[in-house]
Specification:
The chain is α+β, with helices and mostly antiparallel strands and 503 residues long. The chain is built from 19 helices and 7 strands.
């Protein structure tokens, strides 16, 4: 990798001498030329490894402003589109509709480049071996960060002039992508819970409530965890709960919660409301109300759930992933189909809210049941994800159905959990693969399931599994947060629940 990085740097410097900072641009009168995008499966079928052009792979998300900027600015340039079409097989992936490939790209970029969040870029040899990757690249060089075209030209030149180095880099990337096996000696669950409690109390914003700095996220799972970790933790959780309902995070017009605020004082919301946030915040508010009896918090939770039921319903069944009114979003604000994992978590929130949402919870459970029937009708937009559900989809649906009062729902939850373990669980590391053994043939290697926004290991441990799988999951989660200064609260909740339920 050091050799390849030096080559890329030298090629980038050469490119800078021959390119303007931003690369080619098109005049307003020049017609746009669309990039001839292929899916990963189409690229595999059409080339079979015989094509000599390298592959450029782009992963975007409909919920990402930076993805929209890349598509509306970088890819809209006619000369850039023509250059990509000439020199690369261009593959495009969407984070929501192709979770297995998305996990492969995200896992590699996050491990190797320590960059999180879409869009992601990857360059592969004609044999589908990734040799270079990057997170967001601006249309033009800014703040010493290279622009997209400069980086793409450097990757192309390395492949043309130093193919052996590119292949060696691909092999090294594969070794870096191999997950670690947890050590035999790990901190106890009790020690990790105490450390996590202290860390999150220390992260409290003493002035404005909540945790961390701007942008300010709800951290609903942190609230739920701290509520039951002693007096100091409980007070921090209650102050955070008051901040959630006292600022601009909740829209007074429809009751929906935004995913975050831009500022520390909870005054300026980022205008995106996701289904998963309505579920998580609602449960946190209900838990806090149960501790101190604050009816206004319960009312805010119910409004969040009503928002999801009213504004995020998909006409073909299920739910939209979000309403998004940030710059460049669709005019009506609706974004894609929510993952089955998010829909399962929302179902669990409805069940948790009790009698006022009994009928709605039954309807959502019934919808999830139909998606996992042995014989499905022709897949519609709302059903297409069930053809190859990810482990988070399987376990998220089970997470909701496991609380259903209907015996068949609980039976299905157990079946989905067993399926996820059989297809995706790696007992060596205790983690879940994003791809089943059968699906791995399309990928250079099997990627791990991406934990955002829902970690399948935490879901499985919370639902309950057989003793052997439980031990593997406990080991993997303890290993995951062993050195994390702010351990994910969903892991801490899963560990705490397991400790309470097991003698």
């Amino acid at each position: 990798m050091n050799i390849l990085r030096a080559l890329l740097a030298s090629v980038s410097a050469a490119c800078a001498a021959t390119l303007s900072i931003g690369g080619p641009t098109s005049s307003p009168e020049e017609p746009r030329r669309a990039i001839p995008w292929q899916t990963w499966e189409e690229a595999k079928r059409s080339s079979g490894g015989s094509n000599e052009r390298p592959i450029y792979l782009y992963l975007g998300s409909k919920l990402s402003e930076l993805s929209r900027e890349t598509e509306q600015q970088t890819f809209a340039r006619a000369e850039t589109a023509a250059w990509l079409a000439l020199h690369f097989v261009c593959v495009r992936i969407d984070e929501a509709t192709d979770p297995e490939m998305a996990a492969f790209v995200q896992d590699l970029v996050e491990r190797v480049r320590q960059q999180k969040g879409p869009p992601y870029h990857m360059w592969l040899t004609p044999r589908f071996e990734p040799f270079e990757a990057a997170g967001y690249l601006p249309p033009a060089e800014e703040w010493s960060q290279p622009g997209f075209l400069k980086t793409a030209r450097a990757a192309l030149e390395v492949w043309r002039d130093h193919p052996d180095a590119a292949v060696a880099s691909a092999r090294e990337l594969q070794s870096l992508a191999s997950p670690e096996v947890p050590s035999a000696t790990l901190p106890s669950v009790a020690a990790l819970l105490e450390r996590g409690t202290a860390a999150w109390i220390g992260a409290e914003d003493q002035t404005h409530g909540g945790f961390g700095e701007a942008p300010k996220e709800p951290h609903a799972d942190v609230i739920r965890f701290l509520l039951h970790r002693g007096p100091a933790a409980r007070e921090a959780a209650l102050r955070a709960t008051a901040a959630l309902v006292g600022g601009a995070l909740q829209d007074p017009s429809d009751g929906g919660f935004f995913c975050r605020t831009i500022d520390e004082a909870w005054r300026e919301p980022y205008r995106q409301k996701r289904l998963i946030d309505q579920a998580r915040v609602a449960v946190a508010l209900l838990d806090a109300d149960q501790v101190v009896n604050r009816p206004e918090w319960r009312h805010a939770a119910h409004r969040a759930l009503r928002f999801g039921l009213t504004h995020l319903r998909h006409p073909e069944g299920g739910f939209f992933a979000a309403l998004d009114f940030t710059e460049g979003a669709a005019p009506d604000g609706t974004v894609g189909l929510a993952s089955l994992a998010a829909q399962g978590v929302f179902l669990r929130a409805l069940i948790r809210a009790g009698e006022p949402f009994r009928d709605e919870a039954e309807a959502v459970a019934r919808h999830l049941r139909t998606l996992f029937q042995p014989t499905l009708p022709s897949p519609s937009t709302a059903r297409a994800r069930t053809l190859a559900p990810s482990p988070a989809d399987l376990l998220g649906a089970a997470f909701g159905l496991s609380l259903s009062p209907v015996a068949d729902d609980r039976s299905l939850a157990r079946e989905l959990t067993r399926t996820a373990l059989a297809r995706h669980h790696d007992t060596r590391t205790g983690l879940f693969w994003a791809v089943s053994a059968d699906g791995a043939a399309l990928l250079p290697w099997r990627p791990l399931a991406i934990p955002s926004p829902i970690r399948p290991e935490s879901l499985a441990l919370t639902i309950g599994v057989d003793p052997s799988s439980r031990e593997h999951l406990l080991r993997s989660l303890r290993h995951t947060i062993e050195f994390d200064p702010l351990p994910p609260a969903e892991i801490l909740i899963a560990l705490a629940r397991d400790a309470e339920s097991v003698p």
